[in-house]
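Section: protein folds

Sequence with per-residue tokens
===
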Amino acid sequence: MKIVIADDHSLFRESLRTLLEARGHEVIGEAANGREAVVRAREKKPDLVLMDLAMPVLDGLSAIKILAAENPEIKVVALTASEDDHSLFDAIKSGAQGYIIKNLEADEFFGLLEAVGRGEPALTPTLARKLLREFAKPGQSKDSPDALTDRELDVLRCLVDGITSNRRLAEKLGVSENTVKFHVRNILDKLHLHNRAQAVSFALRHRIVDATDA
């Protein structure tokens, strides 16, 4: 994958660049603050931006919101030292494709990056459970699942069940991967969401499935 690293600590960026390149990824840009991250993403058009949340000039959450609105095809994953639940929830709500804590072991970190490459959320099981519990709470939204077709609801249920890759969705539903991509794009467009992690949150918030069944 072509990656931009956004972090205000130059030594961390250098170490992460070395690690990523050793695993065959291409680091095409670096940023020391959120504003630079937005600029680099606009210029370089990476596959992925690894975004720290606590940065000067423009914080990571604000940068994620801008990129999600401008370039939804660019995946953004929060890579942060913060284990605060609200930071996790805010990052996903802002459009992040995942949330990775910096103290992960290298193998688990790269496993999550591979998941992002397949279009899946980058979340450890512990963080995924926190997210499920949070978005399973009753709440109100201006959007409604009534806007979705029966087939789109089927896709959404599969996403909540953990079937998030295009290949597995296609096998489960008996359709082509292109058809899956079409349905997922429609779901995101209709519900004004940016990625599949947000779609899972929406499904739980609206009780399309219960968290205990997911």
User: Anything to note?
Assistant: The chain has two domains: 2-125, 136-205. The domain at 136-205 is CATH 1.10.10.10 (Arc Repressor Mutant, subunit A). Residues 106 and 163 are 24 Å apart (CA to CA).
